[in-house]
Amino acid sequence: MAAPEKFRCPWSLGFDQYIEYHDKEWGVPVHDDLVHFEFLILEGAQAGLSWSTILKKREGYRKAFAGFDPKKVARFTEAKLEKLLLNPDIVRNRLKVYAAVNNAKRFLEVQNEFGSFDNYIWGFVGGKPIVNKLKTLKEIKATTPESDALSKDLIKRGFKFVGSTVIYAHMQACGLVNDHLVDCFRYHAVPKR
């Protein structure tokens, strides 16, 4: 007799890469600054687009943005940025591409001030994930008071494409909040720290 199919959050069922992302990454607490920077670039690029579009271009972003190394991205020249705008493997939006370099510089400033970006961002949720008890996709919020506060602070620090909706997506992706549905097999599997 075959094992029953695992129940997953319905948003993840579009294609294999989406399922893998849901099963292995989404909602797992991140404490690696390079991963935080990667998601800031990807989520900024996603603004107004679907996450599936960005997932399909993720490897292109990794190559184009120096493995998501903020020190390298912060040094990108205008000539490099103009070349990136011709790269079909990323979203070729001038404001988003230029924002990535700006955000790399701001990211380094936060690291200098707090010791790591991780120390900074986890302070907005008291150092541990917010675990929601959601039964349907309709219950998932686009923003929360925590994402509002984090977004406001990032904007004050000069970051771009960090509105509260984008930042809540970052919080979900990087495990600052667990928004897996309670019936999803990942809900209890995701580490609490």
UniProtKB/TrEMBL annotation:
Highest classification ranks of the organism: Bacteria, Pseudomonadati, Bacteroidota, Cytophagia, Cytophagales
Superkingdom field: Bacteria
InterPro entries, A to Z: Adenine_glyco, DNA_glycosylase
Source organism (scientific name): Chryseolinea lacunae
Gene3D superfamilies tied to this protein: Hypothetical protein, domain 2
A Pfam family: Adenine_glyco
Protein name: DNA-3-methyladenine glycosylase I
